[in-house]
Amino acid sequence: MSIVSGLDPMLVNLARRALLQARVVLAVPNPAQTLFRLSSTSSESHSFTVSHLVNACGLSPESALSASRLVCFETPSRPDSILRLLRERGFSRTQISNVVTRYPRLLLTSPDTILLPKINFLRSRGFSDADVARVISALPRLLARSLENHLRPTLDYIGDLVQSGQNAVAAIKRCPRTLYEDPGTLLIPKITILRNAGVPPANIGHLVLYHGPIFLASTEQFDKAVDKVKAMGFKPSKMGFVSALHVLRGMSESLWRRKIGVYGKWGWSEEEVASAFRRHPWCMAASEIKITKAMDFFVYEMGIDSLQIARRPVVISLSLRKRIVPRCLVFRVLLSKGLVDTPSLATSLIVPEKRFLKEFVTRYLGKAPQLLDLYNEKMGLAS
């Protein structure tokens, strides 16, 4: 007789149930152990990602840690293929680091079906490899934009505005966001405002080509600036209108008031400042320091009445070291010998280099032989 047969049947049943429950418990994995294994695997992947971002991509440990919250990979094959393509296209290590820092998800894209077609498209439109690297480094999320639905039509639209594909490349290099942003939000509403105001297409193109950042303002801000420039007396049909718009949008109201104050220290009234701005808007683009130094030189070194400068404000915008000082010193010699008169000073400053040398230097070498040496010395050209 077996031991079991001699036991109480109830006890046997209880023993069998206990044994079955024990087997079930043994068969089911411990949740804590499973979580530990998953956590360990995840931690290893995360550590590998951070390490690769530092060593292969050139990120700082802090940037790598931040980027690893958005991307994670267990092997380097995909990210390395992206990095290899960027290097082959002329991206420097610094540019690659910048791109990955600002757009880490690029490392998870397909190099052949996502990245390469966009780079090739930009190259086909006139961007050099160096251009592509600079533009993408400046705004890496351009690579997140659809080639067919965004990049191609946006580039076409910009090309139409600036009247050539070559100009479109130049405009985008100056302001990459014009290619990144939706034209229906960034450009079209403001172009419409300019057209309705009477600004000619060529002048609009000039604004897009050379002053693209002006369009980064909101449509409401842009509209107010256009109205303000019109109220200041600028004619929308003239190039000065877009120049004034650019200068006005480039500074805050407080900075504008401070510059009026700087000119005011030299005896200019607000109306004289406004008149000078209408004549040459760039006189208000000069820094407060530049305005002060230029006016100081004209008034104290050259003995010119400050209000004469208000009537020829273009001279404020010229380089003090490369234009104003060398030419004024030559002019002062000519003035002392009675060879020129004061009103021709502005002409001597504005004319191109070749014409200046012909009309104000070589023409008078017989009577003032020191002129060329003086000019070359002040220009830093003396041998």
From TrEMBL:
<dbReference type="Pfam" id="PF02536">
    <property type="entry name" value="mTERF"/>
</dbReference>
<dbReference type="InterPro" id="IPR003690">
    <property type="entry name" value="MTERF"/>
</dbReference>
<keyword id="KW-0804">Transcription</keyword>
<keyword id="KW-0809">Transit peptide</keyword>
<comment type="similarity">
    <text>Belongs to the mTERF family.</text>
</comment>
<protein>
    <submittedName>
        <fullName>Uncharacterized protein LOC115734236</fullName>
    </submittedName>
</protein>
<dbReference type="InterPro" id="IPR038538">
    <property type="entry name" value="MTERF_sf"/>
</dbReference>
<dbReference type="GO" id="GO:0003676">
    <property type="term" value="F:nucleic acid binding"/>
</dbReference>
<keyword id="KW-0805">Transcription regulation</keyword>
<dbReference type="GO" id="GO:0006353">
    <property type="term" value="P:DNA-templated transcription termination"/>
</dbReference>
<keyword id="KW-0806">Transcription termination</keyword>
